[in-house]
Design brief:
Chain A is α/β, with parallel strands linked by helices. Chain A has eleven helices and eleven strands. By secondary structure, chain B is α/β, with parallel strands linked by helices. In chain B, 42% of the residues lie in helices and 16% in strands. In chain B, helix 5 runs parallel beside helix 6. Chain B is globular and about 40 Å long. Classes of the chains: A alpha/beta, B alpha/beta. The interface between A and B is large, with 48 and 56 residues.
């Protein structure tokens, strides 16, 4: 084994893109300077109901992201999980991104299709708040993807050419509060639905794609060219590199799930896998830019 | 900075043999600046292994670490339901072999009488004991720990054990998984450390552990290959704590816990 010094640990290159670590930083505090600025497709604003975390105020989150060279972050609101006034949630999300996002935050409003007149929320997200997409939480909002209302939602999303972000989970179901138990979203119905909506683009958030129960389905979904997944919940040694052997690298996006997760988890995954410069650039930025157009 | 990883496995790792698998673990460890890893359990797991099963798994670990002693330590995997066989295995692998710790998983809860002798013998040998713990929601009505397997220990049960074994170096595996109550459960037991690996990299785990236990009782481990080094290192690297505290958690504390048994085996750090 080569000798491990503080300097060489902190300067392990990520291909030629080199997420350089600042060797003069705090002892082993990884402070990458990304020569390729990242697009983080999965950050959260507002507060988790059961915990305060550093970065759950927008200014703090933006500061964290800036430190790692994130150029753009796609933000949803944690309020959308339990609040019934989704219109208000989306309005606050857009205001917060504008007021405190430092030009970095792109709001993705929530739509809850079990609420009366949800189509108006979708319209407002698109037309009034100028959002590039929406974020869904089917498990928290109490519907399945094989219900007619989801098909209706896909129809409208396709008509408006919006990006659809679908959060598969939000926390480990084993550690939930007894009165707030929410399982993962069953993605199986997407296989049947996607051929009917060929223009829809779906980004799966918070899914460990390498889990054996998920992988086969995700391989099939991403082969359609319409489905993407991000890496915040990806686990296993060299997970990003291994995932890129199972699904097209063009379908893998950089997402951190900050501030609920330590941002560094996603960042370090990019270091753990041996990836080429082109692969790193694709995951960190270019794939996301292609999705958003 | 010397990063030592408390918690690695040969399962869910690429490679056909134990040797190939540990080389995979070490290859990725090199990418992440991890100097040493602790490995326990074999390539095929069972919740309630027979003696021949856990002996085979320990043989796999012994094979894996052979020739890689400068990078990897082994912990012996036991099943307290087979007490005599477990004590003999402890002697074979730790007293007479190169292993430095004990791994107890989900065959039997740690606060049952049969486990007492294992803790006592481990203490005599100065071996570190990694006790898997979880607090899974479940049951009817649901409660924290109600979803555990029948033999799966909770941090509260480990705290009971700790009172009876003040000289054993105990590690609360996964910090109970549900780490907020897990940290509270072991707070009053100064010789119990929290192993932070094997759970989502949820922000706040290390900050709370340091606040409630002190940095010297918090130990980095990954639970690779099921987990990544990256996601678990991030818990420490991204934590809002001081640099000396990070140094302790990433390696200093594990080195301190292992020093007596390493010294006994003539291994200098």
């Amino acid at each position: 084994m080569k000798s491990l010094t503080r300097r060489n640990f902190l300067s392990i290159p990520l291909g030629a893109v080199a997420l350089q670590f600042d060797g003069d930083a705090l002892a082993e505090q990884v402070v990458p300077r990304a020569s390729e600025e990242a697009v983080d497709v999965n950050v959260q604003l507002s507060r988790w109901s059961c915990r305060r975390v550093q970065g759950d105020e927008t200014l703090g989150l933006v500061k964290q992201l800036r430190r790692y060279g994130v150029r753009e972050a796609w933000a949803g609101s944690l309020d959308s999980l339990l609040h019934k006034d989704i219109s208000g949630v989306n309005l606050r999300l857009a205001d917060e991104c504008r007021a405190h996002g430092d030009g970095m935050l792109l709001p993705f409003g929530a739509v809850n299709p079990t609420l009366p007149d949800w189509e108006e929320d979708l319209r407002r997200c698109h037309e009034e708040l100028k959002m590039p997409g929406i974020r869904l939480h089917p498990n928290y909002h109490g519907y399945r993807l094989d219900e007619p209302v989801f098909e209706r939602l896909l129809t409208l999303v396709e008509e408006r050419n919006l990006i659809l972000q679908l959060a598969v989970g939000m926390e480990d179901p084993r550690t939930q509060l007894p009165f707030l138990r929410v399982g993962a979203v069953d993605l199986e119905p997407l296989s049947r639905l996607l051929p009917h909506f060929p223009q829809v683009r779906i980004i799966l958030l918070n899914v460990n794609a390498l889990q054996s129960s998920s992988l086969e389905l995700l391989e099939a979904l991403t082969r359609t060219g319409q489905v993407y997944c991000e890496i915040s919940w990806l686990e296993g040694l060299g997970g990003v590199g291994r995932l890129a052997k199972s699904i097209s690298l063009s379908r893998i996006l950089f997402g951190s799930y900050a501030p609920i997760f330590y941002f560094e988890a996603a960042w370090l995954k990019m270091q753990e896998s041996p990836l080429t410069q082109q692969q790193i650039r694709g995951i960190l930025r270019e794939n996301a830019k292609r999705v958003i157009g | 900075m010397r990063i030592w990883d408390l918690h690695c496995h040969l399962s869910a790792v690429e490679g056909d043999t134990p040797g190939e698998r540990i080389d995979t673990l070490l290859r990725y460890a090199d990418r992440m600046g991890i100097e040493r890893i602790c490995v326990f359990m074999g390539t095929q797991w069972k919740h309630d292994p027979l003696p021949e099963d856990f002996r085979h798994q320990n043989d796999e670990v012994l094979t894996a670490i052979r020739g890689r002693e400068d990078r990897a330590f082994g912990f012996v995997y036991l099943n307290p339901k087979y007490l005599q066989e477990s004590l003999a295995e402890l002697d074979r692998c730790v007293r007479d072999g190169p292993m430095v710790g004990v791994k107890l998983w989900v065959a039997q809860r740690c606060n049952t009488p049969a486990v007492e002798a294992i803790f006592a013998r481990a203490g005599d040998l100065k071996a570190v004991v990694y006790q898997h713990t979880w607090l899974k929601i479940g049951g009817a009505p649901a409660y924290s720990g109600g979803g555990n397997l029948p033999g799966e220990s909770t941090p509260q049960e480990l705290a009971e054990v700790a009172i009876r074994h003040p000289n054993v170096r105990l590690i609360c595996g996964h910090t109970g998984g549900d780490w907020e109550p897990g940290i509270r459960a072991i707070r009053a037991c100064p010789h119990v450390s929290a192993g932070i690996g094997g759970s989502h990299p949820t922000r706040g785990i290390v900050e709370m552990a340091v606040r409630e236990l002190g940095a010297e009782r918090v130990i980095y481990g990954s639970d690779a290959g099921g987990r990544s080094y990256a996601s678990q290192l991030a818990k420490v690297i991204g934590a809002d704590i001081s640099e000396p505290e990070k140094t302790l958690i990433l390696g200093g504390n594990l080195q301190r816990l292992l020093r007596p048994i390493l010294k006994q085996k003539g291994i200098s750090l």
